[in-house]
Protein: Phosphate-specific transport system accessory protein PhoU
Amino acid sequence: MREVFHQSLEDVQGRLVEIAELVTVAIDKATRSFSTSDVALAEEVIENDQIIDDKAIELDELAIQILARQQPVARDLRIVVAALRVSASLERMGDIAEHIAQLTRMRFPERAIPRGLKNTFIKMGELDVEVARTLAELLRTEDVSLVERIRTAEDKLDDLHISVFEKVLSENWQGEAAATVDATLASRYHERFADHAESVAKKVLYLATGDWTADTETLETLRLQ
Amino acid sequence: MREVFHQSLEDVQGRLVEIAELVTVAIDKATRSFSTSDVALAEEVIENDQIIDDKAIELDELAIQILARQQPVARDLRIVVAALRVSASLERMGDIAEHIAQLTRMRFPERAIPRGLKNTFIKMGELDVEVARTLAELLRTEDVSLVERIRTAEDKLDDLHISVFEKVLSENWQGEAAATVDATLASRYHERFADHAESVAKKVLYLATGDWTADTETLETLRLQ
Structure:
C-alpha cells in the first residue's frame, strides 16, 4: 500500500512539474508577445491556456482519488492537500499569462507596451519567466535553496511594480489614458504572477520542513541568510 | 462515525458561513470607505483582514483533521475538498476588500473614487456587497436558486467593468493619470471579487448536483432559465 502511495505521489509530482513547465512556456510567450506586439504568439498563449486548465483538473481528480483509495494520514495527507493548492496556483499563473497575451491582442496593431516603460516591462517579463522556471525546478528537485531565488526575483518584481506607478504618476508621464491602463494592468499581472509562485514555493518549503503554520517565518529566516 | 462526520461537516459549514459574513462586512466597509474617502473605515478593513486569514487557516486545519481521522470517501470526501477550495476563495475575497481599502488610504485626503465615475463605483460596490451577502446565504442554506442571483450580479459587474474602461479611454475623459490608475485597479478588484464568488457558487452547486466536471454547463443551464 505504501509502495502504491509513493508511486501515486511521484505521479502527482510529475504532473505538477509538467504544468509548471507549461506555465513557463506560457509566460515566456506572453511577455515576448507583449514587448514585440506579436499577436500570433499572443493567440497561441490564449489558445493553449485550456491545456493548462485541463491538466490542473486531471491532477485534482488524481489527488482526490488518492485521498479516497489510499487514505493517507499525517505528512502524506498534507502532501496531497498541498498538491491541490499548488495546482490551483499554477492554473491561476496560466490565467495571468493569458491576460498579458490578451492585452497584446487588444492593442494590436498598436504596441501594448507603454512608451517609456519598455525596458521595465521587458525586465518584469524576464523575471516572471525566471520565477516560473525556478518553480518548475523546485517542484522537480525539492531543492529548497531555490525558494530563496524565487523570493529574490519576487522582491525585484515588487520594486519594478512600484517603479511603474512612480513613472505613471510622475509629472513627465506623457502616456495617454490607454497607456496608463495598460501599464497598470500589466504591472499588476506581473506582480500577481510572482505572488502565486511564492505561495507555491512556501508550500514546497513547508513539505520539506514539515512545519505548516511557520512557513512564513521559515521563509523570513531564509531571507536573512 | 457517520454521526461524528456529519457533526464535523456542520462545523465546517458554520465556519464557512462565518467567514463569508466577515467578507461581507469587509467589502461593505471597503466600498463605503472608497466612495466617501473615510480613511478610518478603510483602516478597520485593513486591520481586520487578519481575522479572515486566521479563520481560513483554522478551517483548513479542521478540514485536514477530518480527512485524517474520518477518511471520508465519495461525496463526503468531495465536500471536504470543496470546503478547502471555498475557504481559499473567501480568503482571497477578503484580500480584495483590503486592496480597495488600501486605495482609499493611499489617496487620502484626496478622494480615491475618480471624478465622473462616482455612480459607477457606488453601483459596483453595492453589487459586490450583494454578491457577498448572497454567497453567505447560499453557504448557509444551500439553496441553489441563489447561484443564479450571484451570476446575475456578476454579469452586471462585468458590464460596469467594461464601461469603466470605455469611459477612461473615451475622448472626454479628463482624469489625471492617478485617476486612471485608481479606476483601472478598483474596477479590476470589483470584477475579481465577484469572479471568486461565482467560483464558490459553482462548488456549492456541484455539491448539490454531485456533478463535478459539468458544473460550468449546469450553471449555463441555470442562466438560460
